[in-house]
Design a protein that fits this description.
Elements (H helix, E strand, L loop, with lengths): L1 H30 L20 H12 L2 E6 L2 E6 L2 H10 L11 H5 L14 H14 L2 H6 L1 H17 L7 H18 L4 E2 L8 E2 H16 L3 H4 L11 H29 L8 H9 L10 H15 L1
Parallel strand pairs: 3-4
Antiparallel strand pairs: 1-2
Helix pairs in contact: 7-8, 8-13, 9-11
Length: 308
């Protein structure tokens, strides 16, 4: 008899636990933002057309200014009004400051080392401080004014030489931006005049590397949203990212080695570009968060994005 009552009591406790879990799950589900029912495996990816922001706008008209979707196995909350955007970007910005660690962040940005992809934390805050106080301070920008003037004059000279001929301004403006950025970040002596100059790349090759980096940073990689498909690289993006990483890493290593050698040979060394500033900051023993070589590379790479 006692064993029967014990079994009944145990069954009752199990039932209560199950009901409590089911009720809690239901209550939490009711608190989630509204949104379309996801499909197995792909979630709501089928609802994104070739122009995603227009697809999201149409969905927001049905589900409201804040809605929940599922991209593969990842839940995604979408804000579609200035008021909701303010909640994410200002009121609760510390919570939502980090970006997802995508394949692009891993393979093309030194495993989230650059400020663009780094998770919110000590390294991100230090990188932001470096950019604001050391690199993009009014004093440093004034220091590079002569560089910007020189590049603008070269730009006008190139256009003048093409007088009377059809000119695609986009190409020339992109060259002006990248040439100015490269002078400010690392000096322009690292670009070869022709192919085959050791570890150097031509300016055109570097332009192509930057363009590819921009492209791969914004592609929709299926493996980011359906992780078990990541290993198959169905779209071939990861292969391209790894190839691009090798090119950038080879170039960055050459630049850093050259800058460090120059620092050792000059007694009263004065930084002449942004790489010098980063190396000087990294060698300061008073900083609690030490910059690794890969983190410096990641910060250098983001500088081209910020300037270009």
């Amino acid at each position: 008899m006692e064993s029967t009552w014990l079994l009944l009591a145990l069954a009752w406790l199990v039932a209560l636990a199950f009901l409590s879990k089911a009720f809690t799950h239901k209550r939490l589900k009711l608190n989630h933002p509204p949104g379309p029912k996801p499909w197995p495996i792909i979630g709501n990816l089928n609802l994104l057309g070739s122009i995603p922001h227009q697809s999201l706008h149409l969905l927001s008209q049905k589900y409201g200014e804040i809605m929940q979707l599922k991209f593969g196995s990842s839940p995604v909350v979408v804000a579609s009004s200035p008021e909701m955007a303010k909640e994410f970007l200002q009121t609760h910005d510390n919570i939502f400051a980090s970006r997802p660690a995508t394949a692009a962040a891993k393979y093309t940005s030194y495993n989230c080392s650059g400020m663009l992809w780094a998770p919110y934390g000590p390294h991100w805050r230090q990188a932001r401080k470096i950019y604001l106080t050391q690199i993009f301070s009014p004093k440093q920008l004034d220091f590079f004014e002569s560089t910007r003037i020189e590049e603008r004059r070269a730009f006008i000279s190139r256009l003048y030489a093409l007088s009377g001929k059809p000119v695609v301004m986009r190409d020339h403006l992109m060259r002006l931006s990248l040439s100015t950025a490269s002078q400010m970040v690392l000096s322009n002596k690292y670009f070869a005049q022709s192919e085959g100059d050791g570890s150097l790349v031509t300016f055109e090759e570097f332009q192509e590397m930057i363009d590819t980096w921009f492209l791969l940073g914004g592609v929709f990689n299926i493996g980011d949203w359906i992780p078990w498909l990541d290993r198959f690289d169905l779209q071939g993006y990861i292969k391209q990212m790894k190839e691009l990483y090798k090119k950038f890493d080879r170039f960055h290593n050459h630049v850093l080695d050259d800058h460090q050698a120059k620092r050792k040979t000059e007694n009263d060394f004065i930084p002449s570009d942004m790489v010098d500033i980063l190396l000087q900051y990294a060698e300061d023993p008073d900083h609690q968060v030490k910059l690794t070589r890969d983190q410096i590379k990641g910060l250098i790479q983001v500088l081209f994005l910020l300037i270009v």
